[in-house]
């Protein structure tokens, strides 16, 4: 049987080729997810390695100690120290081409080249205090030799000449600087005289441990910590949260989707292959092969196909991981580990074997004599009552859980929505063979007068074996259901955020400080209120407030009469048309955590001077730059009495225009008024909406890139099914040719059949995806952050159009094979 299985593989390479394509693409997803997961760690380690390269010892200050020039001088005098540099990163906003401030950071150029965590890319590093070098990507809008305007932390402008660009690995969350200046020039941007870290390079022959011991004796203690360069790198790795870890999880979820789709394609392919080899298998049974031997032989073929396809998919996974990293930006890493190799090959082979197990088991059920008879296609291929019962049961579960989800809380409703979506998707897949026949006959009646005989043949072929047709469409159904669901939900979230921002922010502009630690000028609100066309302007400030026995929370202070006009979060209970002294509004989250309700009184502020605050409202608000409502809100005059520490953070000015004001003209006037506050950044509501929507759109673009591969698997399945059915219908095709059907007509029939399969799969997928999106929109929507049911017609049209246009391409290879066959040889085929 082993020799027979090998001979069978050699005799039918083309029949198994497209089956292998499906599993190869699926394994590429799995391998890509594992490679991407490893790449996240590689990118972080590379960034840390650059940051700590050449560093044999690192000195940090703790418990209020200071690292300054005095400490640095002592370090340089320690025997065994070849070089020591103080590192400090300061906020240094850039002026863009339009003159607006743009957040950036700068650091001092180390005199010792081996302690520089970057490499020169073009030009040179600064040699005097009027020169600057910039990171290569940041410098894309500037030219060497041209001036660069940088703001210090007091808003004063400093002009430098760009003399060079440098490269370093992607930031990976470690906070690397964008610009490099000489230490004296950096001192002009910041009044800070302390270093964040002192890095030390050892002289030749001095080990890191010995260097640390010597430095500890010289400057250690009194809150100063000295560790080796290796320990500093390890600590930075532990403390740096990866900003790409979520991407790996996101990709892994779609790897599972791809493998499910690939498994369906493989199962369908092996079902057709087994049906085509009925006589061959029956002959083996007649000459002594047992059921177990036949079953084992078919699984052996599956193992070989799975192993070869998995090896190809593993290589493809490297390319997929690299492509996706390029899409999201940053450095590209493709590490290949033993875990990735073993897991990819094992998953690919196991999925192929399990997918082939049911067809192989079915092949052993028929008696040898019965199998040797000429089969009549259509009876066994028809769907029966058990399938109808399963379909009805899944529909009942799906619609029942959907009804329960609509009446449940958000958390419970989300779980029930997932159950409903899975049930409806299962019902759509189970009902496929039941609806193929009626739909095919209706399509035949409608299309036959227009497209002629090829349309009739296509519908007859689709109706002949509804299980096979439905199985071919099922893979496409799953892929389009997922992408239409996420696309529609994303559009709803984006539209809901826009509406929520419009409802809750009565202001037309927000003004924030580009340096978070530097507040806006106290009189800025009054200055902006005096601008012609401005109806009102009010200061809003975030601060840490002391709510007595409840603890400290991030709160928002705003002028009392601006609440309800400039800032109007959704009120869940109580009233919030204004806030006066002694009044407190709490967010829904804070109310749930503390059980505070309207009418309760909180003794806020320090214990020796408590301030009674009465809860007047519970609200729910959306978070946006310059318009954050925090966990609680008080009148601006109440802030100093309950604040923990001095001042606040993240302050902003909310600006509302007069009803008849010209938006563009007033904006120009506001920008002129802000010339005296160079750190102020003006944003319109539309710009705030764009900032909130940008991450959603990036995620959606990545989703489409991932789903494109899953849909590719589905079309590989359609191509495979058509190719195998062409081989199965060799005699039939030859007879049609003999009766006068042209080669073009035969090819057109196959193309029409592929379009029918694609339309069936796309329609079912869009129905399930859009229906599930509607359910999620109803369940997840809140007054503060509504999720609207908005159909993104453009993207959905692209999905449907791509399915219809790709279907004829999937039929090209089968059509060429059918049309090129010899009529006489086909009629003589068994």
Automatic annotation (TrEMBL):
Plastid listed as a keyword: no
GO cellular component terms attached to this protein's record: plasma membrane
Predominant location category: membrane
Localization (cell): Cell membrane
Alphabetical UniProt keywords: Cell membrane, Membrane, Transmembrane, Transmembrane helix
Annotated coiled-coil segments of the chain: none
Name of the protein in question: FtsX-like permease family protein
Organism placement in taxonomy: Bacteria, Bacillati, Actinomycetota, Actinomycetes, Pseudonocardiales
């Amino acid at each position: 049987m082993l020799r027979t299985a090998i001979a069978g593989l050699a005799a039918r390479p083309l029949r198994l080729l497209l089956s292998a394509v499906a599993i190869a693409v699926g394994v590429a997803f799995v391998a890509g997810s594992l490679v991407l997961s490893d790449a996240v760690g590689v990118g972080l380690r590379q960034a840390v390695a650059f940051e700590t390269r050449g560093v044999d010892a690192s000195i940090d200050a703790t418990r209020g100690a200071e690292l300054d020039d005095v400490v640095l001088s002592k370090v340089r005098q320690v025997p065994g120290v070849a070089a020591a540099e103080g590192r400090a990163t300061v906020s240094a906003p850039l002026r863009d081409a339009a003159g607006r401030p743009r957040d950036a950071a700068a650091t001092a150029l180390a005199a010792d080249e081996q302690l520089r965590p970057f490499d020169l890319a073009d030009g040179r590093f600064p040699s005097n205090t009027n020169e600057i070098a910039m990171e290569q990507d940041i410098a894309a809008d500037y030219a060497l030799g041209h001036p660069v305007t940088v703001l210090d932390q007091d808003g004063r402008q400093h002009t430098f000449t760009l003399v060079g660009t440098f490269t370093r690995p992607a930031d990976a969350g470690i906070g690397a600087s964008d610009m490099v200046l000489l230490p004296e020039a950096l001192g002009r941007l910041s009044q800070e005289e302390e270093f964040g870290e002192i890095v030390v390079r050892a002289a030749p022959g001095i080990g890191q441990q010995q260097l640390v011991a010597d430095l500890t004796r010289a400057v250690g203690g009194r809150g100063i910590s000295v560790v080796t360069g290796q320990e500093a790198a390890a600590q930075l790795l532990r403390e740096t949260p990866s900003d790409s870890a979520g991407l790996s999880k996101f990709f892994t979820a779609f790897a599972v989707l791809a493998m499910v789709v690939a498994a369906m394609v493989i199962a369908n392919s092996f079902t057709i292959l087994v049906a085509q080899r009925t006589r061959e298998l029956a002959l083996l049974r007649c000459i002594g092969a047992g059921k177990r031997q036949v079953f084992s032989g078919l699984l052996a073929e599956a193992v070989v196909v799975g192993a070869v396809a998995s090896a190809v998919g593993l290589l493809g996974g490297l390319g997929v991981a690299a492509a996706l990293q390029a899409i999201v930006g940053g450095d590209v890493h493709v590490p290949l580990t033993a875990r990735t190799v073993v897991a990819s090959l094992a998953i690919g082979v196991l999925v192929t074997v399990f997918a082939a197990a049911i067809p192989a088991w079915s092949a052993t059920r028929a008696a040898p004599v019965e199998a040797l008879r000429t089969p009549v296609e259509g009876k066994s291929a028809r769907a029966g009552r058990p399938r109808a019962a399963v379909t009805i049961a899944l529909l009942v579960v799906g619609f029942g859980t959907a009804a329960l989800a609509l009446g449940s809380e958000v958390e419970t409703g989300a779980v029930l929505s997932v159950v409903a979506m899975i049930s409806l998707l299962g019902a759509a897949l189970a009902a496929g063979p039941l609806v193929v026949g009626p739909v095919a006959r209706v399509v035949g009646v409608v299309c036959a007068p227009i497209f002629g005989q090829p349309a009739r043949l296509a519908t007859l072929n689709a109706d002949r074996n509804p299980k096979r047709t439905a199985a071919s469409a099922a893979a496409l159904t799953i892929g389009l259901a997922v992408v239409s669901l996420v696309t529609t939900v994303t559009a709803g979230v984006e539209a809901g955020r826009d509406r929520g921002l419009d409802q809750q922010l009565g202001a037309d502009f927000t003004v924030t400080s580009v340096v978070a630690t530097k507040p806006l000028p106290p009189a800025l609100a009054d200055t902006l209120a005096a601008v012609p066309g401005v109806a009102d302007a009010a200061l809003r400030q975030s601060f840490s407030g002391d709510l007595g026995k409840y603890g400290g929370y991030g709160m928002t202070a705003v002028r009392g009469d601006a609440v309800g006009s400039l800032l109007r979060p959704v009120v869940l209970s109580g009233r919030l048309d204004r806030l006066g002294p002694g009044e407190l509004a709490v967010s829904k989250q804070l109310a749930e955590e503390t059980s505070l309700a309207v009418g309760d009184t909180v003794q806020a502020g320090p214990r020796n001077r408590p301030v009674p605050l009465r809860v007047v409202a519970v609200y729910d608000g959306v978070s946006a730059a310059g318009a954050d409502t925090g966990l609680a809100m008080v009148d601006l005059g109440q802030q100093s009495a309950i604040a923990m520490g001095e001042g606040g953070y993240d302050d902003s000015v909310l600006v509302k225009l007069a009803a008849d004001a010209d938006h563009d003209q007033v904006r120009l006037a506001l920008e002129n008024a802000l010339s005296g506050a160079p750190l102020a950044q003006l944003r319109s509501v539309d710009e705030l909406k764009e900032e909130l929507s940008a991450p959603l759109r990036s995620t959606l673009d990545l989703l489409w890139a991932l789903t494109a591969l899953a849909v590719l698997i589905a079309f590989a399945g359609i191509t495979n099914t058509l190719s195998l059915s062409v081989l199965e219908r060799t005699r039939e095709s030859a007879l049609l040719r003999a009766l006068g059907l042209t080669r073009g007509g035969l090819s057109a029939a196959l193309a029409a059949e592929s379009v029918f399969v694609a339309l069936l799969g796309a329609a079912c997928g869009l129905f399930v995806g859009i229906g599930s999106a509607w359910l999620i929109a109803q369940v997840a929507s809140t007054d503060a952050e509504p999720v609207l049911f908005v159909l993104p017609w453009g993207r959905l049209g692209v999905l449907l159009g791509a399915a219809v246009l790709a279907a004829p391409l999937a039929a090209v290879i089968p059509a060429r094979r059918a049309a090129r066959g010899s009529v006489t040889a086909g009629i003589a085929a068994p």
